[in-house]
Amino acid sequence: MPAGPAPEAAGSPGRGGRRLNRAGRGLLSLPRYVSGESKGQEGVMDMLDYLNRMLGLDAEIAPWPEEGRLPFCLRSGRKYSVLRVGGTECVLVEADEDGFNLPAFRKQMTKLPADPDRVVLCFGHLASGRRRTLIGAGLPFIVPGSQIYMPFLGIVLQERMKAARAAPKKLCASEQLVLLHFIYGTAGSSICKADLAKRLGIGAMDVTRAVRALEALGLVTVEKAGHFDYVSAADAGRELYEKAAAYMTDPVRKRLYVRRKPEFGELPMAGEYALATYGMLAGSSVGCVAVGRKEYKCLDGVEEVDPAWSCGEDYVRMEVWKYDPRTLAAYGRVDTVSLALSLRENGDERVEQAVEEMLERCIR
């Protein structure tokens, strides 16, 4: 299982009474299934019920075969078991709070035939001050019906929560941009997240969140190789587009008419004006260009006009996009899929037919 940091989010207890906090990563507050007097195996079984039924983890307990080989000083007043949680195995040591000596136990841990980081203490009851001491010492522990501190359990929970993360109903700008990369790519080819961020001109965190959303939708897969995550899509072209079409949105954030300026000629063509260049629709005398939201804010001297009150045609239609249209633009116009999405709600049957013919010709 890939290693990773335990969840750090602080907050009030969620469903099932779970709480992860910064003071003790992997710290869980358990619902009171048993009374305060419950101890030993009964409490442990209630803890297993919580892990399995509420968190959906594959937790089970079994005898530890090494227990009988331990010296008397390690067995006296203690019971040893094997606790398996989501594929992670640890040694559970049931002890009594009153007879427990922390310095002595830390020395004894070195004599146990087990990974010290996978040894978990289990107390029927433990005062809050002593719990804080164990957390400060980094010693995993369980108080059945009350609390669990298992830092490595945070890794298991993180993987489970990642897998169970809800898929988005609609893609945001960065998610759609990453998806477009794979639509225009080759099925099965992979790219690491860092290279994907450079190629698309967006932040590494934006790529991570986008890939996570696309993975939840079953559109891409992620494989780890060394220190890098490689992303790939089993499909590409028309097949991937049709799978994702319901989640994709109009990339245009705002449409307006502006006074024509020479520098606007460097922006990619968009809208029906771009569609006409495919030879499927009569051209318009009024041009249309696209610009990214951030880039639009940097444009100087943009003068908005009302076509109904303009005698000449010294203006163009400008579309302000949610992502930079230049990233995937080709032949002086915006990319094919984004163009189709921007015209999806046009309502003109001629435009709809022209868009479909463009997709059939260009997206295979």
Structure description:
It is a single chain. The chain is 34% helix and 18% strand. It has 13 helices and 13 strands. The protein has a 7-stranded mixed sheet with strand order 1-7-6-5-4-3-2, sandwiched between helices. The chain has a 3-stranded antiparallel sheet with strand order 8-10-9. Strand 12, helix 11 and strand 13 form a beta-alpha-beta unit. The longest helix has 15 residues, at 40-54. Residues 1-40 have low confidence and may be disordered.
Which tags fit this structure?
disordered N terminus, elongated, 364 residues, 7-stranded mixed sheet, 34% helix, 13 helices, alpha+beta, 13 strands, 3-stranded antiparallel sheet
Rg, Å, rounded: 30 Å
**Main β-sheet description:** 7 strands, mixed
**Residue runs with pLDDT of under 50 for 5 or more positions:** 1-40
Helix content: 25-40%
If strands are numbered along the chain, what order do they take across the biggest sheet? 1-7-6-5-4-3-2
Shape: elongated
How far is the first residue's CA from the last residue's CA?
38 Å
Provide mean pLDDT, rounded. 83
Task: Output the helix-strand order.
Answer: EHEHEEHEHEEHHEHHEEHEHEHEHH
